[in-house]
Design brief:
- The protein is an alpha/beta fold.
- The protein has an 8-stranded parallel beta sheet with strand order 7-6-5-4-3-2-1-8. A 6-stranded antiparallel beta sheet has the order 9-10-11-16-13-14.
- The longest helix has 24 residues.
- It is globular, with a radius of gyration of 23 Å.
């Protein structure tokens, strides 16, 4: 009894000290909700206080979605053969084993009008076997099928939209075996997106089938502020195009909302353009690195049936993918920039295991030495870290203190994992 009493007294004192500390500071430490407080971001630079945990309640998107989407390369030139061959290619290349498991059909899959019963109908020339048969084929490969509709009267390519048809369309998609819905924003009749998007959430949930809900609202009404209770991801920007200017602009726009992303709901700066020909190898590598760091959906937008070895090398980098899929689920962000027009940039984000992902990005037109200082990363200046290069797949130093510098080519980036030395040693 005496021993129990002493333990109780000690616990009371500890609790008192903790509560007093919290009262003085005015807030609880920013623990990470998904891991139940087991880990937290390494510094308040990486605030995550504005997001919840699996708010939609469908159990999906514990990490950002990965897969392929037809739009960036094929636009409306799609058919069931393309979709089947893409599924085959994801398997044959090994990309599916790396996590690219959604095969998503974008706009133009349906007939221009609904049938006499008011139902959407697959285009009879492009999809003669129907979507159900296509879903069965994709599922037989161990993959998932996604489809597209619009929270408006029509899709962007003037096919039937789902506004005011949410329940019927959700039931139809579920009956076909659809696993993912990209929901666009064209022909929206001027109705606020906060009004138009929740009905499809409710309709999808009511089907009893687990369907990933991807809002494509273009960032018009700042969906990061409200979409966490509506969808599994939400577009924060207008459409990307296959250019350096578009990609960098969109990265900056998405960065603004970093604190709102987390397990169950992710900021979406649009799909990947890697491999479509409009950017250089270094630009595509930077595109993929920053998207991975930002915990953006990794949805391939090229023709994976005929991609180059360089494209495959970028898309299949397991260490970069692991940053994107890290269970801590904290979106990396731009933490420091300097130089002409701020073109020398340091982006970073915390990972599980007390590690830090760091990208040094040269957005200028000349080679430059870019320096990451520990203070800008939220690391104590005296901390020794081990640094691994994720593109060279090797450790560049095992005992760095205070700052790290490297030469970066124009429009290129270098990406690293920083591990505090004690953590690195225990892992080995």
């Amino acid at each position: 009894m005496a021993g129990d009493y002493v333990k109780l007294c000690r616990l009371t004192v500890i609790l008192y000290v903790y509560v007093t500390a919290v009262a003085v500071s005015g807030r609880l430490p920013p623990l990470h909700p998904y891991l139940n407080g087991q880990e937290k971001p390494s510094a308040r630079i990486y605030d995550t206080s504005k997001y919840g945990i699996l708010q939609l309640g469908n159990g999906l998107a514990t990490t950002p979605q990965m897969g392929w989407n037809s739009w960036n390369f094929f636009k409306c030139d799609i058919n069931e053969t393309v979709i089947k061959e893409t599924a085959d290619a994801l398997i044959a290349t090994g990309l599916a084993n790396l996590g690219y498991n959604y095969v998503n059909i974008d706009d133009c899959w349906s007939e221009p009008t609904r049938d006499l019963e008011g139902k959407m109908v697959p285009d009879s020339k492009a999809f003669p076997s129907g979507i159900k048969a296509l879903a069965d084929y994709v599922h037989s490969k161990g993959l998932k099928l996604g489809i597209y509709s619009d929270a408006g009267a029509f899709t962007c390519q003037v096919r039937p939209g789902s506004l005011f048809h949410e329940s019927d369309d959700a039931k139809l998609f579920a009956s076909w075996g659809v696993d993912y819905l990209k929901y666009d924003n064209c022909f929206n009749l001027g109705i606020d997106p906060e009004t138009r998007y929740p009905p499809m959430r409710d309709a999808l949930n009511a089907t009893g089938r687990t369907i990933f809900y991807s809002l494509c609202e273009w960032g018009v009404h700042d969906p990061a502020l409200w979409a966490g209770k509506v969808g599994n991801s939400w577009r924060t920007t207008d459409d990307i195009n296959d250019s350096w200017a578009s990609m960098t602009t969109i990265a900056d726009l998405n960065d603004k909302w970093a604190a709102f992303a987390g397990p169950g709901g992710w900021n979406d700066p649009d799909m990947l353009e890697v491999g479509n020909g409009g950017m250089s190898y270094h630009e595509y590598r930077a595109h993929f690195s920053i998207w991975a760091l930002m915990k953006a959906p990794l949805l391939i937008g090229c023709d994976v049936r005929s991609m180059t070895q360089e494209t495959f090398e970028i898309l299949s980098n397991e260490e970069v993918i692991a940053v994107n899929q890290d269970p801590l689920g904290v979106q990396g962000r731009k933490v420091y920039s300097y130089g002409p027009d701020g073109c020398y940039q340091v982006w970073a984000g915390p990972l599980s295991g007390q590690r830090l992902a760091v990208v040094l990005w040269n957005r200028g037109s000349k080679p430059a030495i870019i320096t990451a200082k520990w203070a800008s990363l939220g690391i104590e200046s005296s901390t020794s870290v081990s640094i691994k290069d994720l593109w060279k797949h090797k450790y560049v130093t095992d005992n760095k203190v205070a700052s790290f510098s490297v030469r970066v080519d124009p429009h290129a980036c270098e990406m690293y994992i920083f591990s505090p030395l004690a953590v690195a040693r225990s892992a080995s």
